[in-house]
Amino acid sequence: MTRIPILMPKFNYEMESGIVQAWRCRTGEHVNKDVVVVEIEGEKASVDVVAPASGSLVEIVHEAGDEVPVGRAIGWIETEG
User: Fold this and answer.
1) Global pTM value
2) What span, in angstroms and rounded, lies between the C-alpha atoms of 34 and 28?
């Protein structure tokens, strides 16, 4: 099995961190690639982040309300294969 990170995205050139607004799934839940798993708030906009792969959401590293630097893992998906 492979663990793939869900990373805090960078919406614009100046963005250094974002705030986790809400997770759309729970730990242990199966997620499909390109389906929204978490909503992130930046300085000027909110963005839906999609799963980078299909598998199980095995860990939520940062909960709603957490401010996280761009590029840091906010959750992990475990895939089969």
Assistant:
1) 0.92
2) 18
CA atoms in the 13 A half-sphere facing the CB of 25: 24
Q: Model confidence at 12, in pLDDT bands (50, 70, 90)?
A: confident
The residue assigned the tokens 């909503």 is 39
Band of pLDDT at residue 61, cut at 50, 70 and 90: very high
* CATH match of 2-79 with 2.40.50.100: yes
